[in-house]
Structure formats: structure tokens, C-alpha cells
């Protein structure tokens, strides 16, 4: 099938101006559209219909070079998109036909779709403040983190967990009520691992902003948030190439740059759904944890491994709430039922609050099989009961290029979902006696009484996991 789609893509998407593909990267990013940005002029976006999930990993859909950009999968099953330069279009169409894959053309000039957001407001942010009216630069996010930790030392702490090749800091922000001295449950959140998914770091930053005003959610929970795991990629995406996905590492093949950090984790590394070809968008790297960014996440997780009750990684797009396993569809996670139940609760809460439908299920089944991803690794190494990858807005109309006017609604989805998880963690730990139905920030700061739950030894991946939390001022129970 080949026909013009005159609809959504014609009213869409992003940034970029005149230009050539840049070969060097400035350390500082910019709010302004830079003349060197890749413009995607006359690039065609093809939407390809697949017959099975294996086809999603066909070379033609995963190769990423100066003529092809994989554009992800919308929330329609068995569909994949690629952007193709005018130079390669004929060849790509032929290859799709050779594979008997049907496709339609969404746009014949991607640059037209990118332009509308260029006109968005570029007002300077007051130093240290945040905004969700436009996508913040990495520097603005750093300034905001710095301001919060300086002004709210009893609530927000900040550490640098690593430095990237280009010298950017990989930040870890922890939010909790630090006036309460106890060994708290940890909810770990990671954002910005894929450069072009700008709504992801925005959601993580927005979460931090909410948490500093939510005493009920920080009294007995310590939130560990890495808002921009891939700062080199984010800066590159904002400054040079809007559709960049990976980090900016050099590879053994000079012409292809970047490792897919979400294929670089040490669990089923380089298995199904990951590639050893550096020219593919899902290149797993030279070895597991070969990258500074994935190492930083690994180290930050391992430091609190026994306290992590929930782990969430924000991505886009497609509107999915996914849980392990992602590396296979053959094995069901042992917590499948509770993962699904809480996932469905998150989806329901988002639908009620924001009117958007999210699909819930195991990552390998709902989207596609991917090995070496952070969620599977965390599930395996921590045995934490709640592990989710949330693919935020949208459902495919705008794809990665979510307009600035939709940021606030997109980050709200994430905030609604995180409140559901936080409640679940508190319920499981009996850390509260009342279940708030409204904004948890409205909860009384002091729960009436902290009950001790019946502690059950729970086995995750053959390891028994402590399900009772130790507090310094209370006796405690150890499970075996
Ligand atoms: Zn992603």
C-alpha cells in the first residue's frame, strides 16, 4: 500500500534549520535553533506495516545513518516508521517491496513538520527555575537541580554519578524528608536515556518539582532520580540533530557514532532486539556497561539495591506502561500478576486524570523484544517488585517530536503514574494508614500510626528479598 497521508504529520513537529550534518559538538547547548542543525528537508517518513514482531528488527528498520532515521513505533501494533533522505528513498522502497512490507508515506518533507515548534517562546528562564512550557536545556535543568538542593537541603540532595565523554555531569537527585532519620524504601527513576525523547527528562524534572511539595510521598520514601542519563545525546539532539537517539561515543566503525544506552546493561546483553552493528540505532556497545552513562546508572542502583521497591524509566513515544521481561517473550516474570495489576492501575489513573489511554503489558510483548535494557537489568539485580518502562506521549501523531504545547499534559501523565506506584510501595510497606484518593500532597504530614506489616519473605529470581524495612529507632524483622 502506498498513498499520501495528508493528516496529522502535516500539522506537526519540530525544529531545525539550514544545515549540514555536524561533526563536532559544542559543550554548551542552546535554546535557539542553530544554523548547523540537520534540517531533514525533503526527507520522507514511511509508515511500515509489519506482520510479526520479528520484522521490527529488520535491518532496514533499525539502520541509522546519514540517510535513514528509525522513527519508532506508534501505539498501533505491528507498525514502524522510518525517515529517509531523498537520496536513499528509491533504494529503501525497493528493499521494503523485496521484503513484501506494505507502507504508506506520512510526509514527503520532514522539515515542514519540524518547523512549527521553532516559533515557540524562547524566553529566558530565571536562573534556577523550571518550566514545562518549553523543553529546558540541559544547563537549565542543572541550574534548577542546583537551586533546589541549595535552598531545600532537608528535602533535596544532589550528587554527580559520572561524567560523560563530552564532560557533562550525570546527575542523581534524591528527594526525601531528611529530617526523618530512617532507612527508607527507595523509588528509583531514570529519564533521558534516549536523546530525542525530550518529554522524558521533562517528566523526571517535573516529578522532582512535585515531590518537593509532597510531604506524604517523601516522609517514608527516598526518591532517587536521574533526570538526564544521556546528557551528551540530549545536548546533541537540541543543538544538531533532533532525531538523535544514542549517546555520542565513537565506535570501531568511524562513520557510525553512538551506543544505545538502553541496550548496554548487563543482563542478556547483545541478545535479541540489540545489535552489534554500530550503525544501528539499537547498537549494544562493545561490551556490557561499556558506557559511562550506563555505568553511572548501574552504580547508583547498586548503592541502594536492597532498598529499591520500584524502578521507573521514562521514554517516548507510544503510550505504553511496560514491565519485565523485555528480552524475551518466552518467560513470564514471576511477579507478572502484581506488575500487571499496578500497571493497569497507573493506566486507569492516567485515563481518569488526563484522558489518555496507555497500553499495559510485558515489554517484549507489548512493544518489541529488547535485550540489555535498564529495566530488565534492574529487575534481575534488585528483585524489586515494581519495575516499569513508561513510554510517554504521544500515540504517534507527533511521535518523538512532541510539541511544546503538549509537554505539561505529558509530564502530568508521568506524575499521575508515579503517585500510583508510590501509594503501592507505601501500602506494601504499611507506611501509611490512609490511602489518599486526591493529591498526595494534601495528605496529613503525620500519619496517625505506623503499622508494622506482616513481613513475608518474597523470592525474586531465586533470591529472597527483605520486605520489611529497618528503621533506626524501631525494632525490625529480618526475612530469610
Ligand atoms: Zn526510549
TrEMBL record:
Cellular compartment(s): Secreted
Cofactor(s) the protein requires to work: Zn(2+)
This protein's UniProt keywords: Carboxypeptidase, Disulfide bond, Hydrolase, Metal-binding, Metalloprotease, Protease, Secreted, Signal, Zinc
Biological-process GO terms, alphabetical: proteolysis
Keyword S-adenosyl-L-methionine: no
Function: Involved in the digestion of the blood meal.
Protein name (Swiss-Prot/TrEMBL): Peptidase M14 domain-containing protein
